[in-house]
Specification:
The chain is mainly α and about 200 residues long. It has 7 helices and no strands. The longest helix has 17 residues.
Length: about 200
């Protein structure tokens, strides 16, 4: 199901006819299923788990797709979660079989992620970043965003990085007595919904 561009979509192969996004009710291009960095990285991670290496043609094309989708600041756009923090956690998790090439891709991102952590050690981003990328990682911390940032930093080999330690502390400190993360903070959409911003 790898697409022509080397990436993977969530449901269909080569379902990327952009004219369908002009339909007035097409929320966040939901009528098409183009390749996305978040899905591609998770497919690469799965292939690597099952023994594929970066020299495998499917892996090589997928890694090239990830490289082509990486923003100038080192981040990746997230289609299936909000947004750059999520996309970069996936882009960073491209799989151990791809590790050498992927570490070069995520090295710039690690610095950006660490700079975007909040005073409380967590990470936060809202749907506003779809319309304005400058809003990447600039909102109050949430458990989901913080966990995604940790995943990306760990995948980049930064297990002892201060940003990881502080984000883990944030997750521990924000739990309630049962160990769950309650609704202390305003609820934020965790999936794509352009119409909700």
């Amino acid at each position: 199901m790898q697409n022509r561009d080397g990436g993977w979509g969530a449901f269909d192969r080569d379902n990327d006819c952009a004219v369908l996004t002009q339909v007035p009710f097409a929320d966040h291009n939901a009528m098409i299923d183009p390749s996305s960095a978040d899905v591609t990285a998770r497919v690469l991670e799965c292939l690597a788990y099952f023994g594929r290496t970066a020299d495998d043609p499917f892996m090589a094309r997928g890694l090239e797709y990830l490289r082509s989708e990486q923003a100038s600041d080192g981040s990746w756009y997230g289609r299936w979660g909000v947004n750059y923090i999520y996309g970069s956690s996936g882009g960073s998790a491209g799989g151990p079989g791809a590790e050498d090439r992927l570490v070069r891709l995520v090295s710039a991102r690690r610095g950006v992620a660490a700079q975007r952590s909040n005073r409380d050690g967590g990470f936060g981003e809202t749907c506003d970043s779809y319309a304005n990328p400058r809003d990447e990682g600039t909102r109050p911390s949430t458990p989901s965003q913080s966990a995604w940032a940790i995943i990306g930093l760990l995948a980049a080999g930064k297990a002892t990085d201060l940003a990881v330690v502080r984000a883990v502390e944030y997750l521990l400190d924000s739990q309630d007595a049962s160990g769950a993360h309650g609704r202390k903070r305003p609820r934020r959409a965790r999936a794509f919904l352009r119409c909700s911003i």
